[in-house]
Amino acid sequence: MRRGWFIPIVAALGFSFLYAPIISLVVFSFNENRLVTVWSGFSLKWYGELFSDPQMLGAAWLSLQIAAISASIALVLGTLAAIALVRFRRFRGRTLFSGMVSAPLVMPDVITGLSLLLLFVAMESVLGWPQGRGMLTIVIAHSTFCTAYVCVVVQSRLSDFDRSLEEAAMDLGASPLRTFFDITLPIIAPALVSGWLLGFTLSLDDLVIASFVSGPGSSTLPMVIFSKVRLGVSPDVNALATIIIGIVSLGVLTATIIQLRNRPRSSRA
Amino acid sequence: MAKKPQLAIDTRPWRDPANNKPFVRIRNVTKKFGDVAAVNDVSLDIYRSELFCLLGGSGSGKSTLLRMLAGFETPTSGTIEIDGQDMTDVAPYNRPVNMMFQSYALFPHMTVEQNVAYGLKRDHLPRAEIAARVSELLTLVKLQDYGKRKPHQLSGGQRQRVALARALAKRPKLLLLDEPLGALDKKLREETQFELVKIQEQLGVTFIVVTHDQEEAMTLATRIGVMNQGEIAMIGEPADIYEFPNSRFVAGFIGSVNMVEGIVTEDEPDHIRIRSGELGCDIYVGHGVDCAPDQLLWWAIRPEKMHLSRERPEVGHDANVTSGVVEEIAYLGDISVYQIALDSGKRIRVSQTNASRGNPDAITWEERVFVTWGDSSGSVLTS
């Protein structure tokens, strides 16, 4: 019976360590007081203030656009890379390619950001493109590191893919392209969805790389929040953070549900 | 080799190759993976409506040969002809051949009906015709009430039947089956074997089955091709393979066998005599064999072709009888298998039918017994 107490207590401690800061942030976003640490009553006024702040809303919209575009580009590139790595088992430079694809996972953001900045500056002076820095450069930068994440997710799904399914489709008269769209794509779809969502979240979340490669007038949401907080924590940032947490949780939940719904189907069949 | 009566030649085209055109011709096919030859110079003729079994252990090249017929592998050299057309370099989706996969390879995101209809949709048949054909096939495999289910909602045996229906949907001229019953348990496998033969006879489709299970091959096949290390060791009807193996490998691979070494002492057109130190007696073979005096060769005999007795039996030619001590008895119900230690130390197995119930006079452990066999019960093997 003593053991019955021990585990819940440890679990509670662990979870509070992880989630207490987030919960306090959510709670204080409904605080009426201007001082973040003093509770003086329930209010939604910071949400109202947030939605009447054009700078915040503009940054949020920009971030969402960048996240969606980068995740989509990364989805296509990462899937292609994963297919190459899993399907063409042995080709010249495979190890190098495999290492290069996953390098952005471990590369410090500062270095990625700095090197991309230097590249964009050099390209602009030599090629004249991309002109200046802004949304385009952020999208390019985010696509590169999101590609690595998508590739890893899709690769793991593809490597336990039963090749005889594709052979069966071809045997029944489907061309290789047809087979890819009829068989391969539907079966790896859950991995594609979670890869896209992962890329979307990472892009939405990124501060360091975006700071390096963004230009005037293209501040993403994390950049705006960070600059605001440096001038002192204001409660409308809490409100914004609460909304972001809501969106991210929803995304993760959706991805998990999709994965769970598909797992028994593929592993048992 | 003893003369066999030639009956029912019309249903066995392989016995008269001069007047019958083979349906599948495999000519000198070799497949190399790197330096390793998985299939080595295989030539094989298979006739229309045959149920041909490729039998071999793992790594014998049987699956590679099947995959070359399906088009998933291209031969390094040699040609494959199906129904008179060269198929060596034709892509799998352009061949009049369908395959049933060992893993069944049912599409997990489609229902049973969609799985069966997939090949028909690729042929752009009218919708009504597809629906009719699908229900006809599901009736054939007795799954008419399961059309709306997904593969993961079916049992192993049901999945196997969906895979069969899907492979038959396009009415292929040739159906390839890779270990079709491998994933089923023993009881279900025995039932399904007969069902498979029934469907094959009903539709008249040519089947090529790959299996490692000799019992399965014997039950299903019109002919068996035994494969060993990428080569065909023997092609023949099940009874030929069992009763008249052409090599020590085939004799040992199918069923159980007693094999001894011996030296030819008499080589006449109508009989030969072999002296075997291992057996402790002479072997008199009642037919001519292509061999030379003093040649070293092997003689193989199945356990059920030998007879046990307590008294020394009357035998002619002063041969074909030896004696030993019963060492082990395995009672299997229908038969008992006796392991006899001969005086040379060689152990042989003899099986006897348990014809009477609870025989108190049966031969038992530690008894000295005589073992005899007929003039043509064993096979003389020179390789």
Task: Describe the protein.
The complex is a heterodimer of chains A (269) and B (383). Chain A has 269 residues and is mainly alpha-helical. Chain A is 80% helix and 0% strand. Chain A has one domain (43-268): MetI-like fold (Orthogonal Bundle). Chain A has helices at residues 2-28, 45-51, 54-87, 94-106, 109-127, 135-159, 163-171, 176-205, 208-213, 221-230, 235-268. In chain A, helix 2 packs across helix 11 (235-268) and helix 8 runs antiparallel to helix 11. The longest helix of chain A has 34 residues, at 54-87. The two termini of chain A are 42 Å apart. Chain B has 383 residues and is of the alpha+beta class. Helices cover 22% and strands 33% of the residues of chain B. Chain B has helices at residues 62-70, 112-122, 127-140, 156-168, 186-203, 214-220, 238-243, 248-253, and strands at 24-33, 36-46, 51-56, 77-82, 85-86, 97-100, 174-178, 206-211, 223-228, 231-236, 258-267, 272-276, 281-285, 296-301, 306-309, 321-331, 335-342, 347-353, 368-373, 379-381. The radius of gyration of chain B is 25 Å and the shape is elongated. The two termini of chain B are 15 Å apart. In chain B, 38% of the residues are buried. The interface between A and B is medium-sized, with 22 and 27 residues.
Shape of chain B: elongated
Mean pLDDT of chain B: 89
Outline type of chain A: globular
Total of domains of chain B: 2
Distance between the termini of chain A: 42 Å
The ordered H/E elements of chain A are HHHHHHHHHHH
Looking at the structure, the CATH topology of chain A is: MetI-like fold
- In terms of DSSP E residues, the strand content of chain A is under 5%
Organism (chain A): Devosia oryzisoli
GO biological process, one term (chain A): transmembrane transport
Subcellular location (chain A): Cell membrane
Domain ABC transmembrane type-1 (chain A): 60-256
